[in-house]
């Protein structure tokens, strides 16, 4: 028996040591990832600001504005991913909503780029038989992206609703459990000292 107990305590020690080591590696990875994402966000904002300033000096065109908005949406995606890393680091769990928001921003970004590209194709003098196939494929991609955006928005709304409904449901269950306990005690009280 002593050999089995010794083996169990060794296994427990190894498990605890491995858990501590992996936790430290995870914290270090989150820290490095967060720093790299923060640096990427700062560089993205700087790049978008420089691009916008140059566009203002060179008379702004629709193409340059869309590209600047595209860069800013990229920065917004990076910041949202950074937020996800921070929340995951603090709570120790992975939350779905920030990933849906990143997907939503990425889809909107792609819609803007497709809209810009298709507006360039539709200009007079640029229409050719090859552009018809490109135009059809971009319209199909826009339809798929539109559906994807709708699905992600509905998913985000459902997640938020379920988070709000969960505490109410818990409170309702607690209140009914307390009510059931109170009614269960009533007959005991009636047959208590005065009933003897």
Report on the structure:
88% of the residues lie in helices and 0% in strands. The chain has 196 residues and is mainly alpha-helical. It has one domain. The longest helix is centred in the C-terminal third of the chain and has 62 residues. About 7% of the residues have low confidence.
Number of helices: 4
Number of strands: 0
Distance from first to last alpha carbon: 55 Å
Order of helices and strands: HHHH
In round numbers, the mean pLDDT is 78
Determine Rg (CA atoms, Å): 29 Å
Q: How many structural domains are formed by the residues? A: 1
Give the low-pLDDT segments. 180-192
Q: What is the general shape? A: elongated
Computed structural class: mainly alpha
Beta-strand content? under 5%
Query: What level of helicity do the residues show?
Result: over 70%
Main beta-sheet annotation: none
Brief characterization of the structure:
With 196 residues, the chain is mainly alpha-helical. The chain has four helices and no strands.
Topology:
Elements (H helix, E strand, L loop, with lengths): L1 H56 L4 H30 L5 H25 L7 H62 L6
